[in-house]
Records
---
Amino acid sequence: MNTTVEPPQVSLTNSTFAEIAAVLRAHESFVVLSHVRPDGDALGSQIAMGLALQQLGKKVKVWNEEGLLEKFSFLPGGELVTLPPNEPEDFDVVVALDTATRQRLGDNVLAAVGEAKVWINIDHHPSNPRYGDLVHIDSIAPATGQILFEFLQSQDLPLDEAIAENLFAAISTDTGSFQYPNTTDRTFEIAADILRCGIKVGELSQRLYESYPRRRIELLRVLLDHMRFDADGKVASFSLPLAMANELGVIPEDNEGLIDHLRAIQGVIIAIFFEELEDGKVRVSMRSKDERADVCEICKSFKGGGHKLAAGARMTGSLDDAVRRVIAAAVEAVNPL
Ligand SMILES: [Mn+2]
């Protein structure tokens, strides 16, 4: 037994897996949603849920504001993921996965969801305000994919190799390949169960981690060239101006995870990546290696959120302004450490 793990902060108002399963079985039409700028946990969870509902004989749509990212297009069932339509559609049930706020489902997605009888919200972000009718937030789970595995398994819902592969992608990517501190004994047990479903971990990991387009590394080269350190090297950051992204021909999914190169530096406590977006906003991603430097708190002060060790925000104003304000907050957070 691991006695250092805190008891789950699953509040009493969480819907049980049995209650959620009953709602899934009792309805016919579903739309499965997740957050903008989807990561492996978002898309893997969406596809796994979509496949499970399909195997139950349900009518299922799986929408994402960005559709299926090129780098996750190998996931079995990936073709389920589409862009939202222009006209709103009605559903019995909306299932929102891995999405800390309703707004993060995306403007086009939200506009495309018409009437719905029930909203289900399954997530692991502690900052989730518990939107929806049936809510299950487990902030101890390192990935929404882990919650979904326990949900599907415990409720005798479909869980075949294709679903398992998507859940492995979700858990593996959100735990940094089982490295981050939220990775528990339970995570490894679930990973073992997933492997027993028949997935080939070597092949899958190669597609997840050793199949990057070359332009991603060309981007990394430029970013490292402009790397900046503050607070005696405890804060490391780099920025991607829109003009640079256009010049390099990179697409948004290329920069996912590049921040890990900053986090991996000895002495760095907070890593920050600033990305200038087309809409004039600045996307800020933050990582911390020390819970006392809570980047979720910092991001909340800029109307963002996330986890203590991984959080983000979207800021209005210029890139220079965002860099100045966020770095100042990060320096303040690491100075006492
Ligand atoms: Mn997640």
---
Amino acid sequence: MKLTVRRHQEGKSYDESFDVASLKVTTLLAALYEIKAKVDETLTFDAGCRSGVCGACAVRVNGRETLACSYTPQDGDRVEPLNYHPVQRDLRVDKAKAQETLKKVLPRPIQNPKSKIQNPPLSPKEEALFRLQTDCILCDSCYSACPVLAVNPDFLGPFALTRAWRYATDPRYTTDEPQSDSKPKSSILNSPFSILDAVQTNGIWDCTLCGECTAVCPQHIDPKSDIMQLRGESLKAGYNDPNLSTQSFGAPDFGGGFGFDPNAGF
Ligand code: SF4
Ligand code: SF4
Ligand code: FES
């Protein structure tokens, strides 16, 4: 079995093929470890748990994001680092900039000096609202798969927007003072404005709803759906879709651009 790896070493980028037929491999990550141990010790990649939990080993295989520790390699596979991340060496990327986006969607925790309940317990029903989003392992696969980042590097990106929705549905977070010493009814109903504010620019309205983020997520999280939910809540809270404000819903213009003058008479 032949495996091609996109390498980045000492300022040079090039493809290198490895014959892994004689190596014992069950996963792509095992293949990379075998190559490193038996063929080229300089091959560089990231890994941690080796069991799909830590998110460290995400790469692209034949253009599709996947966790190397969960993927069974096929003959002819081409392995590359994630998109939109500075490559440090070979398959190792710097995730710092992408994960900075999380700081932009941080909620302000409940701060009520009179309250004895700073961290009210949640009911199972409340927990279920954001259980899936909490499973994000920050593998950055969705970020790498998102076409918007190719044209707007400041786009918050799918996992940060999923995180925003996770906080928006968590009743422990609100920008208002709690109405009593008991927990607030719901952050999304009380006042999610700091979170909704944070996702208006370079956020929910820039998404094309292509669904690539959802397709690659190893945790089966659905950032596209979370973005649609944030859009709905934003409209309810009085924010506007800036894409609509650039469109005209007035009388159609049949002027000279189409070579047709409605006042010319028939
Ligand atoms: S649905 Fe939106 S956030 Fe997800 S990949 Fe497409 S453009 Fe990016
Ligand atoms: S949402 Fe899914 S694909 Fe995106 S970073 Fe989290 S686990 Fe990875
Ligand atoms: S090594 Fe942790 S997810 Fe692959």
---
Amino acid sequence: MNLEPLFCPYCGAEGSLEEMETSAMEIDGDLWLIYHWYCEQCQEQFDKVELSPLSIDDSDDDDLFDDDDDMER
Ligand SMILES: [Zn+2]
């Protein structure tokens, strides 16, 4: 997955972006990734925030537990 922007939103320069360290924040069980870029042309910095759910497989797994109480009588 390539999230890197193609050009600088400030000066429009292509290929001059330096990716910096990505920060991660956990808010309400979700993981937010904050990407930082630095433009070597105009020396501006900008961020991109991406929501990355911590538990994708965690949705309604209660239905799988519907085992009908089929015990021996
Ligand atoms: Zn720039």
